[in-house]
Each structure stands twice: as C-alpha cells, then as structure tokens.
Amino acid sequence: MLAEEKLIGMLEAGGVDFTASLPCDRMKRLIAMVPRTFFHIPLTREEEGAGICAGAALSGRRPAMFIQNSGVGNMINALLSLTGFYELPLALFISHRGLYKEKIAAQRPMGEKLPGILRGAGIAFTRIEKAKDLNLIPGRLDQVYRKNRIHAFLLSPAVWEEAEAKDNMPQPVLTLSSPGGNLSRRQRVAPAQGKIEKLKPRLTRYEILRAVWPALESRAVVCNLGFPARELYHIGHRPSHFYMLGSMGMATPIGLGIALATKKEIVVIDGDGALLMNPGTMATAACLRPGNLTVFAVDNGAYGSTGNQPTLARRCIDLEEAARGLGFRRTIKAAGKRQLIRSLEIKEGADSPSAPSGPGFIHALALPGNRETPVIPLDRLEIKRQFMAFLDSQTIYSRPYC
Ligand SMILES: Cc1ncc(C[n+]2csc(CCOP(=O)(O)OP(=O)(O)O)c2C)c(N)n1
Q1: Which has the closest alpha carbon to 154: 56, 49, 72?
Q2: Same structural domain for residues 208 and 150?
Q3: Are residues 215 and 312 both part of a single domain?
Q4: Ligand 1 residue neighbourhood (C-beta within 6 Å)
Q5: Are residues 45 and 149 in the same domain?
Q6: I need a surface site. Which of 145, 221, 316, 372 has the fewest CB within 10 A?
Q7: Does the pLDDT of residue 176 top 50, yes or no?
Q8: Which whole number is the average pLDDT over 136-154?
C-alpha cells in the first residue's frame, strides 16, 4: 500500500470528518486524494483554514489540514489566539520543505526554523521522516480529538517517494463539498471593455509570458513564485526582473511598494492563487492609486506550480470583477496574443485625460499547465543587486493619493 493510502486509512479510522488544504508540490498526491475521501475545503490562505477548522470544531467536527510549512507562518497567530486559546482540536499535516532533497533555496529558512517556531509556540509536533513513521500518527491523532489539542505532523518529502517513483498521480478535483458555480465566468463580457465579447483562455502561462515579454522591456517586473518566475527567466532574463522565490502572495505588495517609492513603470506578474491569498492588497493599491502600477494577473484557475489543483478562480471568482469591486478602475480582460500585448500598451490617461486613472489590472485568462523549466540559477542576492541597479531611483513618487 502506498504511504498516501495508508495515511488516508489512518485518518478515516481516527474519525477525521472535515478537511481543508492549500497545496504543496511535494505532497500533491495526498492532497489530490483527500477531497475524494473527506468533506474538503480548498483554501485561499492557510490562516483562513485555521478559522474554518475552528468553526467546524465548534460544531463538533474533527478537522485536519494539509499544507506546506510556509503556510504555518501565515497562521501562527490564529493557531495561538484562536485554536489553542479556545482549546479546539486541529490535526496539521505539514509538508516539511527546505531539508530533504530541496532544490528551492527560499524554502530553507522556514523549513529549518519550523521545529523551533512550533516549540516556541508550544505546539506539539511529530516528525515523520519515512513511510514507516506514519505508524506514529494514530495514537497522537486520537489525543488531538480527545484532549482538544493542536498537533503538527511534519511530513518529509521522503515519505512520498515510493508513489512518486510509480508516477501514478491522481487528477486534482474540485469536489462537491467545494463551492460550486459553473465555468461560464470565463465567457462573461469584460465589463471595462463595454463590448460584447466572449473570452476563453487560449494560451498557457508560458505562451502568454513569451507573447508579452517584448512589451515588458524598460519596465520593472515583479514575478510570482514557482513556475511563473522560472518560465519568465528562461524566456529571457533581464536585470529589470525581480523573481520571487518564496513568500506567496507578496508579488503585488512588492510591486505596490516600488510604484509608491519610484517613478518607474512596474508590472506585477501575479497568479490567481497568489492574489486570492492576499486580496486586501488590491484594495490598498486601488485606494493609493499609483498610475505606474499594472497587475498582470495570469489566471489559469489553478495552483499551477504545485500540481494544478483548482483555485476558486476556476469556477466562482472573476478576478477582474474582484479587482473592480476593490476599487480598480482601469481593468481589462484578455486571452488572445494580440489582446494581451495591447493590454500592456494602455497606460494611465493614454486615451484621454478623462480616462480612468490609478493602477491597471489585466486579467489574463490562461490554460493550466507549466513548461518544464529548471529552477532559476541566479543567487537571491544577485537577483536583488541587479534589480536595485535597474531601479536606481531615489525619487519619491509625488502624486497626491486618496
Ligand atoms: C504560504 C504558502 N503556501 C503554499 C505555498 C506553495 N505554493 C507555491 S506556488 C503555489 C501556487 C501558486 O499559484 P498561482 O499564484 O495561481 O500561480 P500559478 O503557479 O498557477 O501560475 C503554491 C500553493 C507557498 N509557497 N506558500
């Protein structure tokens, strides 16, 4: 029996009846199997999962979460001041990155420090280093629900190696227990364009990035972590690119900070998953109104970099409408090559002085899928050095806000 099947069986036997997840590439088989067995919530942010699971526990359910260790950083306050404080049960199954065969340097800081963080927070944890260590889980899981405790199971990627070798990846699903809707949102009329046009994704993220790459020249680009950054690097590196190697959800905040501090034109290449992890930043950007910021949201309806698990943008959320609802006035939806290139050419006030002002939001509809590209060979400090040399601007943006 594969480790994933063994663990699912243990959770069923332990009475787990409510689950939530936010994927990690190194635990993607388990995360694809969980919604097939349990009531399951696909999360936009790990912290949200602590809240949802607290609500489930208050209703007498036995919740478990499946996340990457980086997500613990996003939820530590909720774990302490909510789950722990009210003595609610929560089993955390954490993909422990940063140590075993790790290729992504940005995973190391959280991975190495996680045990110390949990110890400092007084959260009990068990390290599961190999498949046979899974036998430690049932007894501790029982304590979680009988004594109303939090317990973190730190699962090394080594645990899943057997299944990986067999390469029998189950397809990720958006389950019946997930919020529904239908796929029609991708065909809706783009409200800002004012004309009837049905849009469907036609290109993958890689094809989109390759198409718009020439139009990005001379602008500063902050690029979402994972495959977006890898693909952009391999299409063509420029010193004007700030590749994110970790800290999901921070691309648009970083771009906003640059837009407010300089006069440079900034394009943030963000993703639907990353934007939904931190949507408040769209409100901040819309309210502060820097006209030199463009959010180029590549919406493939999935957490593409971790195995194409569907995000809520797949069915329920239209990101352009979300951006407009949060205050963006210059928005556009684009799917075809020419449309995408044209969308980047429209600058603030370009059409007429009375045209909408403030940051731009380009909703780029994409097909799921990654181009197999290796990790970026540049050192983090080299990325920073080149990008800062490109910005090289001490000028504070002097436009009046709000
Ligand atoms: C806090 C946190 N949770 C989970 C992850 C794992 N992770 C890395 S990339 C990614 C998917 C990002 O999806 P999206 O922004 O839609 O971009 P895509 O890869 O689909 O282009 C996830 C879940 C992470 N790095 N950080």
Answers
A1: 72
A2: no
A3: yes
A4: 22-24, 68, 70-71, 74, 205, 224-228, 248, 271-274, 298, 300, 302-306, 311
A5: yes
A6: 372
A7: no
A8: 98
